[in-house]
Amino acid sequence: MAKLPSTCARTLSGLMLLSLLSAPLASAEGTSSAPSTVENLVAYPGDSQVVLNWDAATDDTGIDGYTVYTGLDPYESRGSYNLGTTDVGDTTSYVMDNLTNGMTYYFAVKAYDADGNDSASYSNEVDSTPEESNTGDFTGPMVTHAEAVSSTLVQVEFSEAVSLPSDPSSAFALEASDGTFVEVLSGYVSEEDAATVFLVTDTQIAGAEYTLTAGIQVEDLAGNPVSSGTSDTALFTGSALASVPSTGTTDSGTADASTSDVTVDEGFMVEEVEATDTNELVLHFSQKVTTPDVSSFTIEMAEDASDVLEVLAISVNADDQTEVTLVTEDMEPGFDYVLTMDEALLNEGGDSLSEEERTVEFTAKTIDLEDLIAPEDITAFLSDATSEDTVLLSWEPSVDSAGDLAKYLLYRSTDGGDSFSSSAVTIESDADEYEVDELTAGETYTFKVTAVDENGNESEGLMTTVTLPEAGPELLVLGLMALAGAGVATRKKRD
Prior knowledge:
This protein has 495 residues and is mostly beta strands. The longest helix has 22 residues, at 473-494. β13 and β14 (196-201) form a beta hairpin. It folds into 4 domains: 42-128, Sandwich (Immunoglobulin-like), CATH 2.60.40.10; 143-237, Immunoglobulin-like, CATH 2.60.40; 270-367, Immunoglobulin-like; 372-467, Immunoglobulins (Immunoglobulin-like, Sandwich), CATH 2.60.40. The strands form 9 sheets. Strands 4-3-6-7 form a 4-stranded antiparallel beta sheet, with no helix packed on it. It has a 4-stranded antiparallel beta sheet with strand order 8-9-14-13, with no helix packed on it. Helices cover 9% and strands 37% of the residues.
């Protein structure tokens, strides 16, 4: 066999090594992927302690626990957390104690799985400052507000984040002014705000006055219960808005076969309803949705359930299937509306929204009259022919009383301002002069500058007219004299 030249042998060896280095390395921790990034970390200060709470992470083999990182400075200032880490086990809430009151601490969390994989990134960073308290670690939570979202759903606001017992219905009572009670069927803490609780109830009487009472089973995140007295009650009025039934029914009351077998996913919910226009809503769901039908949505005015808006069209964002846009009839700007969704609205897994998640209240987009008003025009608009083909324009800027000036537009006319060029030059909003060149000597030009705000409203504009000098012998003589003067000055300097 012929022997390869030494250069070729070295090249082959290098290629083989490069191939080995570029091949995927087997993970020493197995083939499982890293847990997802921990989200929605929040911190609540106490006496010499801080209570941390976060959303559960996900992993293909299951979450084994969480690590809390603590420091005295933000991560970006050090690149690390100087007080080390704490393995808190498989929990989404933890009390960091033995802290110094008055000192600010910074926290972040990562999840880890059984194979030892950590989240690729830290959670959002939070900071908190423990404060001395004469009442212990925390005072008990207080009921601050209650409101009927629908005839079977009540929203309860607390003074701080709370946790509920395994049977939330046992922790609340709803009593009407006539002494009768409405049964609380279930309840849950809002994922967006742990100080908000939703209660699913039997049907309330529209217009009836109710007293909500929270029991000592409701606790804050440090384990302090609601205190009996005025701080555990709130008044609200029963709603006339009917909720969507948990199974579809026909007029005869029998279950509709197209929806009666649909399962419910408790994690499937509407996270936000955004009124982007007077006839458009953007819904953000917690999970991807399948292509829904317009009949799955009903929009009613909150104050008058008989005032129903028609949903005209619907679209799902192809790049983000958790985002759904509804085109509707025109809504009354600034009025409150209630959106209800039926169980035919499904996620990718074929599951429906739970009953309490099918009703959402929102406010129609408000039309700001200032959005229809253009900025004030510039003033003291002057033009100066600095050469036979160049003009310097200057002005006093717009007073911009609305604070939304975005730019100026410069237009040019050669017929005295009867008509202007269709294309305009864009000028920065902080400019007070602009030079126009490559003009025609001897020509008369009219310039107009308009002010444009962030919403595209354009002012009428201010005009100025200038005639450029002719390019002739006079300019040539002036130019030669200038050159001669420069020559003399040069000679004198040399001398």
